[in-house]
Design the sequence.
């Protein structure tokens, strides 16, 4: 059985998320990274006043790992021993 390897690494303003997957599962899998919203603001003044506003908003930054399903009516191969190894580091 062939080894499948997926790896996604996202780095946004010092925040790093990484997912690695090594598998011999018979069904291919897909990895998707979705980043619908990130807002970063940094306002700093001194003699013009306002001394500091720092705002970071990370909303729903997502990494998805899902199997691809065979089309309807397709034959599914018989199950064979397989395994998956995961690594996740926020």
Sequence:
């Amino acid at each position: 059985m062939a080894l499948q390897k997926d790896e996604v690494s996202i780095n946004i303003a010092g925040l790093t998320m990484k997912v690695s997957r090594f598998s011999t599962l018979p069904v291919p899998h897909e990895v998707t990274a979705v980043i619908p919203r990130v807002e970063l603001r940094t306002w700093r003044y001194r003699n013009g006043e306002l001394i500091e506003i720092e705002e970071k908003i990370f909303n729903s930054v997502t990494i998805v790992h899902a199997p691809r399903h065979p089309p309807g009516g397709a034959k599914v191969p018989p199950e064979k021993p397989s395994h998956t190894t995961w690594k996740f580091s926020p």
The first strand starts at residue 4 and ends at 12. Strands lie at 4-12, 15-23, 29-34, 37-43, 53-59, 62-67, 84-89. The two ends are 30 Å apart (CA to CA). Residues 54 and 68 are 41 Å apart (CA to CA).
